[in-house]
Specification:
This protein has helices at residues 4-29, 33-39, 53-84, 91-108, 114-129. It has five helices and no strands. The chain is an all-alpha fold.
């Protein structure tokens, strides 16, 4: 594997997405409205009166579901990008997939997770700009130019 930094940065971004987006999504979708009213709603109460607890809960639950869908899409895009750049086969395709993963993270989280999306943009930039030099070694030796003194029968 020659593009290990790009893959490691992409996997780090996915791990952070799982921790933050998946954690929020799992916590809110499994929460009941009474628990929401006692724990989360007092934090968000600045602009909302207590009459709208149910509507606020539905809005936060919709956001949590949106985060879950975003996480799934980002996971698929980063997996495809990592497979594309495996053994330095298609770095341009991998860069495009990393860019889409970053844009999905930005749009899916409504620009909340911009620091996580930045990791995907770094991985895309490395795919596009970093050139891998071929190492000299036994596996790169070719005998095509060498003419043997022996003739084949």
């Amino acid at each position: 594997m020659k593009r290990k930094w790009e893959v490691m940065i992409g996997i780090a971004g996915v791990i952070l997405c799982v921790i933050f987006l998946g954690g929020f999504s799992l916590t809110i979708t499994s929460m009941e409205e009474s628990t929401y009213e006692t724990t989360v709603f007092p934090i968000l109460q600045e602009g909302v009166s207590e009459e709208y607890v149910s509507e606020s809960f539905e809005a936060v639950k919709a956001l949590a579901i949106w985060f879950g869908v975003t996480l799934l899409i980002v996971f698929i895009l980063v997996a495809l990008a990592a497979l594309s750049i495996w053994r330095n086969k298609y770095p341009n395709r991998g860069a495009v997939l990393f860019i889409f993963a970053g844009l999905t993270t930005l749009i899916g989280t409504q620009f909340i997770a911009f620091s996580i999306a930045f990791l995907f943009f770094i991985a895309a930039g490395l795919c596009l700009l970093r050139k891998i030099k071929e190492k000299e070694g036994v596996e790169n030796v070719s005998n095509k130019k060498y003419k043997s003194g022996f003739t084949r029968i």
